[in-house]
Write a structure and sequence with these properties.
The complex is a heterotrimer of chains A (172), B (675) and C (148).
Chain A lengths: L1 H22 L21 E3 L6 E3 L8 E6 L4 H16 L5 E6 L4 H11 L4 E4 L4 H5 L7 E5 L5 E5 L5 H11 L1
Parallel strand pairs in A: 3-4, 4-5
Antiparallel strand pairs in A: 1-2, 3-6, 6-7
Chain B lengths: L2 H30 L5 H27 L6 H6 L6 H6 L5 H22 L5 H23 L34 H15 L1 H13 L4 H33 L9 H26 L3 H23 L15 H23 L14 H33 L7 H24 L7 H24 L5 H32 L3 H11 L1 H25 L2 E8 L3 E4 L2 E13 L2 E11 L5 E4 L6 E5 L6 E3 L1 E4 L3 E11 L4 E10 L3 H4 L1 H12 L15 H4 L1
Antiparallel strand pairs in B: 1-10, 2-3, 3-4, 4-5, 4-6, 6-7, 8-9, 9-10
Chain C lengths: L1 H11 L12 H13 L16 H15 L4 H12 L13 H21 L18 H11 L1
Helix pairs in contact in C: 2-3
Classes of the chains: A alpha/beta (172), B alpha+beta (675), C mainly alpha (148).
C-alpha cells in the first residue's frame, strides 16, 4: 500500500513537471506583461526640441491619442515610420499622433529629425522617465489612448497599416 | 559534394548506428544473461566513441578552414575571430555544443568500457546498454534535429550560396578566457553523470547491488561531480569578471540547472557511506544516482529549450520538444525501474539513534534534497502559474536567498557535527567532550569578529559555524597522525602520510569540506560587508569606495580584430596611497562587437588575497568628458574560486586507487620489461 | 578621434546612460535594496539594480525619485506592480498559489524529518545489549596497524 502511494506520488510529480514544461513551449519567456490597459494614461510635460513649446498630454483631452515610443538607433522603428506617417495623414483631424524618442541622445534626435522631418509632433524624453511611467518594455511600442485619457492598449512591435487602422478604430 | 560536411555527417550516422547496436545488444543479451555477447557491445561502444571524436575533429577543422559550406561554420564562424575563439566556437551555439557533448560522451564511454573491459559481464551488459541508449539519443540529436552539417533542405534543392564570411560567435562568449575552460568543465560534469546512471540502472535491471559494483558507482560519480564543481565555480567567476554587475551568482535558470545535479550527486556521495557501513539506504542511494543524471538532462533542457528566460541561454532551438520526450521517457523508466526492481535491493536496518553518524547523514540527505526541491520549484514555478493561472510571475534572487540560506546554515552545522558522531549510538559524555573545543573556538571567532566591528547575526553566526567546522575537520585530519606519532615516534610527515593513505576517501572528503568552508566564508563576507558607490566623474575627479579611491583619467578607444572598445581609464589608489594604473585594455570599458547590437561592458577587477576592488563602467559621455562608474569593494570574494584546489586535491585523494591487499601473486612475465 | 568613433557607434547601439545625481548614503542604500527586488523590463530576469541597461537605470532613477519623495517601500513596489503586475517582483508574494512555492520546501523538510524519525528502532523493542563501546573505526584501524 505504502509502495503504491509512493509510486503514484512519484508519477504525479514527474507528470506535473513534464506537463508544465510542455505548456511552456507555447509561451514566450521574454514577453513582459502589460497591466496599464484600462488605466488612466500618466500625464507628461515635455519641451519640444524644434519649437521650444511645452507639450502635455492633458492639452489633447477629448481627442484620441496615438503615442509612439521609438529611438533613432532602432532599425524596426525606421521600418514602421512610413506606416505611422500614413496614419497621421489619414486620421489627421480625428486623432492626435505623438512620437516620443527615448533611450537616445539629444544630438542624435535633433539630427535625425532635421534629416527626416516627421509630419507629426516628435518629443524627446531625455531620461526615459515617460517611458518608465508608461511601462515601455522595448522599442518600438505604440500606445492607444481614448478620448477620456484612458490607455486602451499597446502594440509592442513594429506596427503595420492594418493593425494601426484596426487599433485606431477602437479609440475613435 | 562538400567534403567536410559529408565526412562529418557520415561519422555521426556511423556513431548513431554503433550506439543503437550497443544499446540493443547490451540490454537484450543482458536480459538473456548471455555474457558471451559482451565483446560485441564493447566494440560497438568503441565505434561510437571513435566516430564522435573524429566528427568533432572534422568540425574543428572546418571552423579553422572557415569552410562556410558547413552550416554551423556559417552560423558562428567569422574570419575576424581570433583562432582560439574560433576553436572555442565549437560550443558557442546549440548544434556545436551538442556535437561537443557527443565527443565527451564518447570519451567517457570509451574510458569506462576500456577500464572495466575485463570485468565480468554480470552488470556490465545492462550498464553499457543503458549508457549506449543515452548515447543513441544524443547521436540522434546530432544526426537530425540539431544537425550541424547541412542547411535544411540541402538534399532537395539546389545547393545554397556559400557565404563568404559569418557573424562570429556570441559576443559575450568571446569576452574572457574563462569561457574557454568553463563550458567544457560543465559538459564533463553533465555528460559524466551518464556513467553512474548506467551503473545504477544496470544494478537495478540485474536486481542486485553487490559491494563490488558500488566502488565504480562511487568513483564514476565523483569524477563528474568534480568537473561539475569546477564548472559551476568557474561559471560564477566568469559572471563576476565579465558581466560587470558585481555579482557571481544570480539563481538564473541556467545556474540552477547546473546546481541541482551537483546537490543530488553530493547527497549521493554521503549516503553511500551509510550503504557501505550499514548496508542500508540501498534503494535511496540508487535513486539519488539516477536523480543526478535526470537532473542533468532537465538542466540541459532548461538551457536549450527556449522555455526559460535566462541570461545564459545563448543557444536556443527547436530541439526542446525532442528533449522533453526524452525527459518524460527517462522519468518513467526510473520510476518503473525503482518500483519493479527496487524491492530486490532493500535490506533496511533500523536506525539506532538520530544522534549518530548515519542519523546526521540522513538529515544531510534530507537538507540536500530539500534544497534541490526548492531550486527546482523556484525555477519551474513561473511556468506553473502561467500554465494553471495564466499569470506571469517572477521568482528571483530574494526568494532563493531566503530559502537557501537557512538550509545552507544547517548543512554547515552538520558538516561539523557529522564527523564527530560515531556510527550506531553516541555516548553523551564522549560527545560533550568532543564538542567542547570546536564550539568554544566557534564562539570565540564570532566574538572576535564582533569586537573587530563586524555586525549582523547571519554573517557572525556563519563565521562561528565555519570556525567550528574547521576545528572539527582539522582534528579529524590530524588525530590519526598524532596517535601514530605518540605510539611509534614517527615524524609528523610520515605519520600524516601513512594515516592519510590508509583512509583516502575520508581524508579527501575532509579536504573538500575545507574548500566548502572557504566558499561559505567568502560568500558570507562578500555579501554582508561589500561596499558600493556609484558616481559620475569628470577627468581627474575621484570617487571613494571603502578605503580605496578611484580616479578617472579620461577615455581612450581602441580596435582589436573582432571588436572596438572605449576604455574609461582609471587609477586605483590604495589606502596607503599606492597608485595602480588601469588603462586601455585593463580599464573598465565598453566593447562593441561586429554584428552585435548591444555594447558589452567589461569591469576592471583588482584582485587581492583578502579583497577585490571592482570597477564597472556604465556610461562615457565624450561631449561632457565624464564617465559613470559602479564601484565595489568585496572582502574575501576571491576565496570562492581559490577554493577550487581543495576540491581537486580532495577528489584526487579519494579517487587514488587503494593498493590491493597483498595477496600472493605471481610476478608478471618478462613482457613488462619492454614497456 | 574618440568622439568620431563614439559618434559612429552611437548610430548603431542603444546609448548608455549617465547615472545622474545620487541621494545621501542612507537613502541610496534603500534604493539599492528596492532595486534588487524589481525585475528590469528590458533585460533577462535581472534586477534593475544589477543591469547596466539604460532602461534599467531609468527604472532605478524612478525608484530614487520615489524614495526622495519619502514614499514607503510598499508604495514604491505598488507603482511597478500597477504597471507590470506581479511579474515585476523578484520576490513573489505569499498569497494564492504562491503559498505552494513558499511552503512546499518546508513541507518536504517536515515530512522528511518524520520519515527519518520513523526509521528509529522501536523504543519498546528489547535492545540486544548495551551498545558496544564506540570507537572511531579509523583510530581502531591505526591501532591495529601498529600492533602488527
Amino acid at each position: 500500500m505504502k509502495r503504491v502511494a509512493a509510486v503514484v506520488a512519484a508519477l504525479a510529480v514527474a507528470g506535473l513537471v513534464v506537463y508544465v514544461m510542455a505548456k511552456g513551449f507555447g509561451t514566450d519567456p521574454h514577453e513582459v506583461p502589460f497591466l496599464m490597459a484600462g488605466q488612466k494614461a500618466p500625464e507628461f510635460s515635455i519641451t519640444r526640441l524644434d519649437t521650444n513649446e511645452t507639450v502635455t498630454l492633458s492639452q489633447f483631452k477629448g481627442k484620441p491619442v496615438v503615442l509612439n515610443f521609438w529611438a533613432t538607433w532602432c532599425g524596426p522603428c525606421a521600418m514602421e515610420h512610413p506606416n505611422l506617417e500614413w496614419a497621421a495623414r489619414t486620421y489627421a483631424d480625428k486623432v492626435v499622433f505623438l512620437g516620443i524618442v527615448f533611450e537616445d541622445t539629444e544630438a542624435n534626435t535633433r539630427r535625425f529629425l532635421a534629416e527626416k522631418g516627421w509630419t507629426f509632433t516628435q518629443l524627446f524624453d531625455p531620461k526615459s522617465t515617460i517611458a518608465v511611467d508608461y511601462a515601455v518594455s522595448g522599442v518600438p511600442e505604440t500606445y492607444f489612448i481614448n478620448r477620456e485619457g484612458v490607455i486602451v492598449g499597446k502594440y509592442a512591435a513594429p506596427i503595420s497599416r492594418d493593425i494601426l487602422a484596426q487599433r485606431i478604430g477602437e479609440i475613435l | 559534394m562538400p567534403v567536410n560536411a559529408t565526412l562529418g555527417y557520415g561519422l555521426i550516422l556511423f556513431g548513431l548506428a554503433c550506439a543503437a547496436f550497443a544499446a540493443v545488444v547490451g540490454l537484450v543479451t543482458g536480459y538473456q544473461r548471455r555474457e558471451s555477447a559482451l565483446p560485441w557491445v564493447q566494440r560497438a561502444i568503441y565505434g561510437f566513441s571513435g566516430s564522435m571524436l573524429l566528427a568533432n575533429l572534422v568540425m574543428v577543422k572546418s571552423l579553422l578552414e572557415h569552410d562556410f559550406s558547413v552550416k554551423y561554420v556559417a552560423q558562428v564562424g567569422s574570419r575576424a575571430t581570433p583562432t582560439i575563439y574560433t576553436i572555442v566556437s565549437l560550443w558557442s551555439a546549440l548544434e556545436g555544443s551538442i556535437l561537443f557533448w557527443g565527443a565527451i560522451m564518447g570519451a567517457y564511454l570509451f574510458a569506462f568500457t576500456f577500464i572495466y573491459r575485463r570485468e565480468h559481464g554480470r552488470y556490465m551488459q545492462f550498464s553499457l546498454g543503458v549508457m549506449a541508449l543515452v548515447a543513441t539519443f544524443f547521436a540522434f540529436l546530432i544526426a537530425a534535429p540539431a544537425q550541424p552539417w547541412f542547411t535544411p533542405g540541402y538534399f532537395f534543392s539546389s545547393p545554397p550560396q556559400i557565404p563568404l564570411d559569418g557573424p562570429g560567435p556570441n559576443a559575450l562568449l568571446q569576452n574572457h578566457v574563462l569561457m574557454i575552460i568553463h563550458p567544457p568543465m560543465l559538459y564533463l560534469g553533465y555528460v559524466g553523470m551518464t556513467v553512474p546512471f548506467g551503473i545504477a540502472a544496470g544494478a537495478l535491471l540485474r536486481g542486485e547491488l553487490g559491494d563490488a559494483w558500488l566502488v565504480p558507482l562511487r568513483k564514476w560519480t565523483l569524477v563528474p561531480w568534480l568537473f561539475l564543481t569546477i564548472g559551476i565555480i568557474l561559471g560564477s567567476w566568469w559572471a563576476y569578471a565579465v558581466l560587470g554587475w558585481g555579482g557571481y551568482w544570480a539563481w538564473d535558470p541556467v545556474e540552477n540547472a547546473s546546481f541541482m545535479p551537483w546537490l543530488i550527486a553530493t547527497a549521493f556521495m554521503h549516503s553511500t557511506m551509510v550503504l557501505e557501513r550499514k548496508k542500508s539506504l540501498k534503494l535511496w542511494t540508487i535513486a539519488l544516482a539516477l536523480g543526478s543524471f535526470v537532473l542533468t538532462i532537465v538542466g540541459t533542457f532548461m538551457t536549450r529549450s527556449g522555455v526559460f528566460n535566462s541570461v545564459h541561454s545563448f543557444t536556443q532551438s527547436d530541439i526542446g520538444p525532442t528533449f522533453l520526450k526524452f525527459i518524460a521517457a527517462l522519468l518513467l523508466f526510473c520510476v518503473v525501474l525503482l518500483t519493479v526492481r527496487g524491492h530486490l535491493l532493500v535490506a533496511e536496518t533500523p536506525l539506532e539513534s538520530v544522534v549518530s553518524r548515519e542519523g546526521s547523514i540522513l538529515v544531510n540527505n534530507l537538507v540536500f534534497v530539500a534544497l534541490t526541491f526548492t531550486v527546482l520549484l523556484g525555477t519551474l514555478f513561473p511556468l506553473v502559474t502561467e500554465a494553471l493561472q495564466n499569470k506571469k510571475i517572477s521568482v528571483g534572487e530574494p526568494y532563493f536567498n531566503a530559502m537557501a540560506l537557512p538550509l545552507a546554515m544547517v548543512m554547515v552545522f552538520l558538516m561539523g557535527v557529522g564527523p564527530m558522531l560515531p556510527w550506531g549510538k553516541a555516548d553523551p559524555k564522549v560527545l560533550q567532550q568532543q564538542f567542547l573545543i570546536p564550539s568554544a573556538v566557534g564562539l570565540v571567532t564570532a566574538l572576535v569578529c564582533f569586537a573587530l566591528g563586524y555586525r549582523g547575526f547571519l554573517p557572525l553566526t556563519t563565521f562561528g559555524l565555519c570556525a567550528f567546522v574547521t576545528v572539527v575537520t582539522l582534528r579529524e585530519l590530524l588525530l590519526p597522525a598524532r596517535q601514530r606519532m605518540t605510539e611509534t615516534k614517527e615524524g609528523f610527515g610520515t605519520a600524516f602520510f601513512i594515516s592519510a593513505s590508509r583512509a583516502r576517501r575520508r581524508f579527501g572528503g575532509y579536504v573538500v569540506h575545507l574548500g566548502i568552508v572557504a566558499i561559505v566564508v567568502a560568500v558570507a563576507a562578500s555579501s554582508s560587508y561589500k561596499q558600493h558607490t556609484s558616481a559620475t566623474l569628470k577627468q581627474g575627479e575621484v570617487l571613494a569606495v571603502g578605503d580605496w579611491k578611484i580616479r578617472y583619467d579620461g577615455a581612450t578607444s581602441g580596435k582589436l580584430p573582432h571588436k572596438e572598445y572605449v576604455s574609461a581609464n582609471v587609477t586605483l589608489i590604495s589606502p596607503t596611497g599606492e597608485e595602480l594604473v588601469r588603462h586601455n585594455l585593463d580599464a573598465p570599458r565598453m566593447n562593441y562587437y561586429e554584428m552585435s547590437n548591444d555594447p558589452i561592458g567589461s569591469p576592471s577587477v583588482h584582485e587581492m588575497v583578502f579583497k577585490d576592488v571592482y570597477v564597472s563602467l556604465l556610461h562615457v559621455d565624450s561631449k561632457l568628458g565624464t564617465a559613470s562608474f559602479n564601484a565595489w569593494v568585496f572582502p574575501l570574494v576571491g576565496w570562492i574560486w581559490y577554493a577550487i584546489p581543495f576540491f581537486v586535491i580532495g577528489s584526487l585523494i579519494a579517487l587514488w586507487p587503494q593498493r590491493k591487499a597483498k595477496v600472493l601473486t605471481v610476478p608478471a612475465p618478462a613482457a613488462v620489461v619492454q614497456s | 578621434m574618440i568622439s568620431l568613433i563614439l559618434l559612429a557607434l552611437s548610430l548603431q547601439y542603444a546609448p548608455t546612460r549617465d547615472i545622474g545625481p545620487q541621494l545621501d548614503a542612507e537613502r541610496e542604500a534603500r534604493v539599492m535594496v528596492l532595486g534588487k527586488q524589481l525585475r528590469c523590463a528590458v533585460c533577462q530576469g535581472v534586477a534593475i539594480s544589477d543591469s547596466p541597461a539604460s532602461m534599467a537605470q531609468a527604472q532605478l532613477a524612478k525608484v530614487r525619485e520615489l524614495v526622495a519623495e519619502d514614499k514607503t517601500d510598499a508604495e514604491i513596489l505598488a507603482y511597478f506592480v500597477q504597471r507590470y503586475g506581479e511579474w515585476v517582483l523578484l520576490e513573489p508574494t505569499k498569497t494564492g498559489l504562491n503559498v505552494v512555492l513558499w511552503a512546499g520546501p518546508l513541507a518536504l523538510l517536515g515530512i522528511g524529518l518524520v520519515v527519518i524519525l520513523m526509521q528509529r528502532k522501536k523504543p519498546d523493542a528489547p535492545s540486544a545489549k548495551p551498545p558496544a563501546p564506540t570507537e572511531d573505526p579509523l583510530l581502531a584501524q591505526v591501532r591495529a596497524d601498529l600492533e602488527k
